[in-house]
Amino acid sequence: MVPDCLLPETSTNSTVRMDGFQTGQSSASDTSQNCEQTYYEKPNADLTPNIGPSRRTRKQKMDQLCDEDILLAQIQMQQAQLSIENLRLERKTLQERYQQQREAHEWQRQQHEANLNLAMLQIKFWEKKTGYGDMET
Fold this sequence. Notes:
Keywords: Coiled coil. The protein is mostly helical.
């Protein structure tokens, strides 16, 4: 069975409907009356219109949120630009360091080559002075 409070309001008297529902159930009448009271008799607080933010207040709030989103996007864009600039400077620094290392390695290679040539000349000079090269042949 469906409680009376869930049935739509009709022209019949509510006590007649409740009597038909109560057939031998005394506790059901209390429940039905409570349900009917809460369904049909709303407190005054529920009858007041929904007073929420005005359209202007909602628009201002949306504008504020949009402004905050724009500021956040601008900050993120600045961070991205700074990151790009930082990467460029880091790349330039690495290129300069690589160039310096390459020049240092080239200088060391030339020093080794010069030392090798000097050692070869010293050996030839020693061979001529001592006649050691003539003995091998």
